[in-house]
Amino acid sequence: MAGNGAGEDGLETLRASLDRIDESLLDTLRRRIECCVEIAHFKREHNVPMMQPHRIGIVQRRAARYAQDHGIDPDFLRRLYDLVIAETCRVEDLVIGDVAAR
User: Fold this and answer.
1) Fewer CB within 10 Å: N-end or C-end of the chain?
2) What is this structure's pTM?
3) Alpha-carbon distance 100 to 49, whole Å?
4) Which CATH number fits domain 2-99: 1.10.3210.10, 1.20.120.530, 1.20.59.10, 3.30.430.20?
5) Mind listing the pLDDT tens digit for each residue in 50-78?
6) How far is it, in rounded angstroms, from Cα 38 to Cα 95?
7) CB 81 within 8 A of CB 29
8) Cα distances (angstroms) measured from residue 70 to each of 66, 67, 74
9) Half-sphere exposure of 55 (CA within 13 A, CB side)
C-alpha cells in the first residue's frame, strides 16, 4: 500500500518526538533508581529499616493527585508506581543486604 509522503514525514516527526520523550522517561527512571541506591546506603549506615510503608503511601498519594490534576487514569499511575516501587525496594534490599551478608 502506497503511503502519503507528507503524512509519513509528519508521522516520523511525531515518532521522533515520542522517542525523545521515551529516552527522557528512561533516564528519569534510572536517576530515580540511583537515588534509591543512595537512600539504601544511608539506611544501611544508620540502621533504618528498608521498608517505609508511610513513605510508599506518600508517593502513591502524590501520583494520584498528579493523575487527577493532569487527566491521567489514576489506576494506571497506581499500577505504574507499584512496579517502580517494587523495583526500587528490590534494589534497596540488595544494597542493604550486601553488608549484612559479609
Assistant:
1) N
2) 0.82
3) 13
4) 1.20.59.10
5) 888 999 999 999 999 999 999 999 999 99
6) 9
7) no
8) 6, 5, 10
9) 9
